[in-house]
């Protein structure tokens, strides 16, 4: 599938919401039809379950028992469990377009998605959208529900944020853009309070951001920002990188997955007022701990004096790609 909508339809088929023990079928038809009819029997009396049918409780047990062939894997999302159980208890809620009203969290990972299409707007209650490990190059903000609080786009090919920042979801609290193709200094301008007034967590790790001063000046406007991940960018190689960020963004609680303690912040107090210490250079030391599969040169040094044995010279080239 090339779009989120197409991937979602495949996702629904994978969940089997219309198949036993979910949905409506010969296994529960009488029970569900009885719910729709006015109660004819006296209060307190329950109709017997017809032969060949199951009670909703028995069907739920087939979904929840880890040894059941219909059970979801242990690592499945809470959203998947919820949809399966709703499909047992009230399958009419998931009929047709109604399913879009139930979904609050949508996770589509590594499904070849290239486009966040307009169909995503049908998820009127969507709060979390995770599209990691796909092939997305750009995101049109007009196609994102305004209710969105979490947007995760890690491991994609996003190189420009202009379309995403045109009308971003105003309540967004987490934005994940790690392992993409963001290059500085053209993209730093998109990380201000004008676009993300409620942002608490921002992941920009493993991109190609280079302008530390420019990025910090934008991030300093995000008054709610508490979690920031920048490791893997060239700017993270600057010697004063962590200290400058800690002093420049005093409300941060976690930087690069490391908690910030008051003692560490105090250690770098005043560094934000000394931008001249930030130099656009970095020193990288690479140490080779072990090499395997190379001929031992000592074996070729045991030739007798005057022998006419061949002299074999080996040379090696080690390449590092940054």
Task: Walk me through the structure.
The protein is α/β, with parallel strands linked by helices and 322 residues long. Helix content is 21%, strand content 7%. It is built from 8 helices and 8 strands. It has helices at 4-15, 29-36, 56-64, 78-89, 99-102, 212-219, 241-248, 262-267, and strands at 105-107, 128-130, 150-152, 174-176, 201-203, 227-229, 254-255, 258-259. Strands 1-2-3-4-5-6-7-8 form an 8-stranded mixed β-sheet, with no helix packed on it. Helix 3 packs antiparallel against helix 4. InterPro entries: Leu-rich_rpt, LRR_dom_sf. This is LRC43 protein. Keywords: Leucine-rich repeat, Repeat.
Provide the fold topology.
Layout: H1 4-15, H2 29-36, H3 56-64, H4 78-89, H5 99-102, E1 105-107, E2 128-130, E3 150-152, E4 174-176, E5 201-203, H6 212-219, E6 227-229, H7 241-248, E7 254-255, E8 258-259, H8 262-267
Parallel strand pairs: 1-2, 2-3, 3-4, 4-5, 5-6, 6-7
Antiparallel strand pairs: 7-8
Helix pairs in contact: 3-4
